[in-house]
Design goal:
Length: about 300
Amino acid sequence: MSKNGWRRYVVLLCGSIAAATPGLASGQETHADSDRPDLFVSSRNTNSVKRFDGATGEYLGDFVAPGSGGLSATQEVAFGPDGNLYVSGRGNPQILRFDGESGEFLGPFTSGYDLDEPTKMTFGPDGKLYVSQWGKNKRTVARFNAVTGVYVDEVTPALQEGMAHAWSEDGTLYVASYGSKDVRRFGPGAENLGVFTQGSELASAVNLWFGEDGDLFVLDWERGRVARFDGSDGSYEGVFIDGLEKAEGVTLGHDGALYICDWQKNQIHRYDAKTGEHLGIFASGGEMKQPNGLVFGPSHSD
């Protein structure tokens, strides 16, 4: 994979919309502590978004207050092209938008379509916002204009509890499917290309990303680990990260390390992105309860 290709994957990782987040677009750059973006974490059971110092992991308080704007069962967090924070909640029929500096509620973002228990969302390379749904009536991945929030279409058929999204260089969409325990592929024109991951190595698939060498990494919530698959044919290559309880959210930090939420233990772990080595617990506390999404964003002012 080319250097530019790797940087593209860094931008897309976990819907972090790195291009709009200082220090993430290049992925591997190192910044002085005072310039490091802070870490924003969804806290499902407090209906809020927590903020942690991006250098030390110190808890800085609620960035989005509990229930602000009607936020219910917080799921994914992502900074958009406008620098504001976008949040999905399983109890919300729209994606909510908050000021990227203050956390003030700016109103519902999506329109023209009521979401049914939205979970993961990603700003895609095509200028669309992708949102997975776990509802009783809607289980597709819906697309919205990433600037206006207007509904575009449903880009997948009904999935068995679809989760996070990633793209290959040719525009193929990969979707983690929790219920079917695999990763599904869809062409640029929404063609259903079937199951990509081979074998029965996944007990659940909740998040995914492409590595520097083109391999696909899949976060398994049930087994608390990251599985590695060949990026060309989906064959299983082994366990990359292990030892978590219930893991869901993942993002790439300013330092090139992976940050993963342990939903069960209410902790954020840090790993070497190339080797999978555990680099310690980065953040915890602050009454964070069942974190399942995280993203680096603006640094705080002292």
